[in-house]
Amino acid sequence: MNVLIVGSGGREHAIGWKISQSRHVDKIYFAPGNGGTFENLDIKQNDIDKLVSFAKKQRSKKLLTIVGPEEPLSLGIVDAFEKEDLRIFGPTRQAAMLEASKAFAKELMREAGIPTAEFAIFTDAHKAKDYVSKQSKPLVVKADGLAAGKGVVVCDNADQAIAAIDSMMTKKEFGAAGSRIVIEERLSGEEASFIALCDGMTIMSLASSQDHKRVSDGDKGPNTGGMGAYSPAPVVDNDLYDKIVKRVMEPVTSIMKKRGTPFKGFLYAGIMVDQNGNPHVLEFNARMGDPECQPIMMRMESDLYEYVDAAVDGRLGSMPPIQWKDQTAVCVVMASRGYPGSYNKGEVIEGLDSKFGNDIMIFHAGTARDSQNRIVTNGGRVLGVTALGQNARQAIENAYSAVRKIRWGENGHYYRTDIARRAIVR
């Protein structure tokens, strides 16, 4: 069996790395891939027609396609592949609305009784600002559509909320994604990421993880696509695990099936855990989290391909529980200085040939190869330096030891220094 992985980030590199360990897999293609992946195709992740054409030519090799990012899912890549009877893992366009529209997701949660923050939806900036002026609690302003993980503004006061409304609806900083917004109550507590494999009927939970969304240490600064993650997340104990499955994952998959749009793919729930240990959904994603994917893949003992293959055929219910390494994995994202704002590209990355050891993986994200075949920066989040350790403290030490061996440009890189520290505190 050959595998095609659609996407170019650290998540796709990590999935490909894990899939390559399967005895069932002969060859892995990436479209378009990055500087750290091989067998890269010159096909953009949103060029659905070309992706379908490539898959059709590979039909005799029994190609299985795995979709990494949200964009092709929202464009209906799964619908297009299934129309041609091509094997693909991911949700249909309608099922991917769970991520593609925050308003859709919030209204679905309300209908299904899934715990989430109180909210209101607006298409008019003046009405949105009037609503803000009448609220006494801190708010979060979200662009309805896809915004590469940056369309969420966590506000401390009304002035910040109004500024966020202006940036999304008046200045159009997120384009069409901000033409409709969701304003919701700002929840407090500790965040966790809960990801599961779904085949439309059965949920197979992956290891717990925790992301670090803000750009700076101490969870300060603007939201990003994620500056680091670790697994497992101690906050998700057995009691909370059961609550998330019963109150979140089962209701959302049940209502999707009831609506005639069963969810098949990686289903991600961003969870806020309140002081009483109860989960509230911040968001749903219709794909694996990034950078959560990297530490999860490092800890996974089972053959990922076998579970994805079973999910495509609706056979997850017959599969044994996934096995995990009894270790902690930590991923530190090395980003271009200036991210999530403007940053330079084309900086030569040095130190990638260092001796890192078997417990370290450097997953590429925003990288490319230049005319001299050197690895250069090509994005905001450049590398996901991921390490295993017997406990959180050791995994952190291993990860940052590797980070310190890598550099680019003159003061060109940036990373948070407190990834997974919360696990030690706990």
TrEMBL record:
It catalyses: 5-phospho-beta-D-ribosylamine + glycine + ATP = N(1)-(5-phospho-beta-D-ribosyl)glycinamide + ADP + phosphate + H(+). InterPro entries: ATP-grasp, ATP_grasp_subdomain_1, PreATP-grasp_dom_sf, PRibGlycinamid_synth_ATP-grasp, PRibGlycinamide_synth, PRibGlycinamide_synth_C-dom, PRibGlycinamide_synth_C_sf, PRibGlycinamide_synth_N. Residues 209-229 are annotated as: Disordered. Gene3D superfamilies: 3.40.50.20, ATP-grasp fold, A domain, ATP-grasp fold, B domain, Phosphoribosylglycinamide synthetase, C-terminal domain. Pathway: Purine metabolism; IMP biosynthesis via de novo pathway; N(1)-(5-phospho-D-ribosyl)glycinamide from 5-phospho-alpha-D-ribose 1-diphosphate: step 2/2. It comes from the Archaea. The keyword Transferase applies. Keywords: ATP-binding, Ligase, Nucleotide-binding, Purine biosynthesis, Transferase. One of its GO terms (molecular function) is phosphoribosylamine-glycine ligase activity. The keyword Nucleotide-binding applies. Its EC number is 6.3.4.13. It is an enzyme of class 6 (ligase). Belongs to the GARS family. This is Phosphoribosylamine--glycine ligase. It comes from Nitrososphaera gargensis (strain Ga9.2).
